[in-house]
Amino acid sequence: MKKLLSLLMAIAMVASLASTAFASDFEVGPTDPNDPNLTDSTKTVTSTVKSKIKSPTIKVTIPTTNNVFLNPYKMKVEVDNVAKYDEIVSIPGTIKSESDVKLDFSAVVTGKAASGVTLEKASVGTKTTNSVYMFVYFANAADANAVKALTPPASPVFSGAGTNAIVVQGTASKSTKVLTLEAAPENGATFGGFGIGGDIVAAPTTPWTDKHTVDVTIAFSIAPVQGTGTGSGAGNGSGQ
């Protein structure tokens, strides 16, 4: 009976040791004292987390030169094989974004009128001076071909929500968010355009000559919009 009891106790001890050995197979961390992982209650570990900036890729193409025709006599002007008869005829410039984030465009517009030419802040009406009313307009487009078809808005908005135009003056005029382009789809692009509209005195006291010109400078500023990268959905440009 004593031998049986001793045998049972020995078996129990072996079973206990086996259980301990089994548990040690799942012990977290090695036993090397030089290892940075925790091995016992007296050891500490310092973890350093390094930051990285997630920056957008901004790639925008804007023409650096363009043309506008002052057409007081409403003569025929061909633009991309299309006849135009407006008093101010411009060739729309294409803005192409291949960026992975939505972009807001602001612009500063400055006009330089030749001697004898007056830049007006509104339609020339019945004036008889060599006066020109010009504004730069901005619009979204589905693609590059759609930019070519852009025309000046009948009722341009010069301030507040939905601003889409800036009057051309002899001093710099700035407007923010005149155009917004969505993030470009993968391997794609979004588009917008700009052009010039307005009117001109048809029969001034001093007849128009080729020396009566107005040059317009448009300086663009571009700002990414938070939370609008390609991953959050992209499409063609949209209005404000």
Describe the structure.
- With 240 residues, the protein is mainly beta.
- The protein folds into two domains: 41 residues, no CATH class; 173 residues, no CATH class.
- It is 12% helix and 35% strand.
- The chain is built from two helices and 13 strands; from the N terminus they run αβββββββββαββββ.
- The strands form four sheets. Strands 1, 6, 8, 9, 10 and 12 form a six-stranded mixed sheet that branches. A three-stranded antiparallel sheet has the order 11-7-13, with no helix packed on it.
- A hairpin with a 2-residue loop joins strand 3 and strand 4.
- The longest helix is centred in the first third of the chain and has 23 residues.
- The N terminus and C terminus are likely disordered.
How far apart lie the N and C ends? 95 Å
Order of helices and strands: HEEEEEEEEEHEEEE
**Poorly predicted spans:** 1-27, 231-240
What value does the Rg take, in angstroms?
36 Å
Determine the structural class based on helices, strands and strand pairing. Answer: mainly beta
Fraction of helical residues: 10-25%
Largest sheet geometry: 6 strands, mixed
Mean pLDDT: 84
